Amino acid sequence: MKIKKLTDSFNYAIEGIIYAIRTQRNIRIDFAIAILVLILSLFFDFTKYEMLILFLTITLVIVLEMVNTAIEATLDVLANYYHPLAKIAKNVSAGAVLISAINAVVVGYLLFFDKLKPITKNVIFKIKQSDPTVVFICLIVVVIITIIIKAIYGEGTPLNGGMPSGHSAIAFAGATAISLLTNDALVITISYFLAFLVAQSRVEGKIHSIYEVTIGSILGVLITIFIFTLF
User: Fold this and answer.
1) N or C, which end of the chain has less CB nearby within 10 Å?
2) What is the CA radius of gyration of the chain?
């Protein structure tokens, strides 16, 4: 009987994990990033202590995300109407997740920065030697890939709405290209600030969600860096 109860406990716990992954987008993203980071860690000579810190950091983010989901579900059952205390509880639990995510970024930077420094220097040197006309190629490629992804998702139109935000992708692609071609910190700052304003305007206009804008921005940055490195 005790063994059966123990087995049931494990089954319930696993069901909870599966439910969280199946229904919560943020948790799916957390698991995807965790898998990617763990795979990357295999290519670096981390000590046992560094791996321990990495595992604890990843676990903290996922656990807090799941606790946040549990709190939200509980409050939705207990208070099926708007209540300021329920809002506070949800905001505080979401804040805990945000702090853990910021901590994860800091830990990742501290662990991977020195390991990636030689590679980063070579990439930056190669990018600086690129032909400025590559900027035009970047923007065209960003537009094409954005349209393809929108067609796959079947949301919005090629020029308005849907996943991801094309305006954000192009804006951040342009800002990234500028940052790769100049050493002027002011110009780089202004470029990214303008790109941020473009993305923010898409959210304010309720044309895109924050998630769609974020994915579009990341897409623009990554495609630009890839093409500059390639050429």
Assistant:
1) N
2) 21
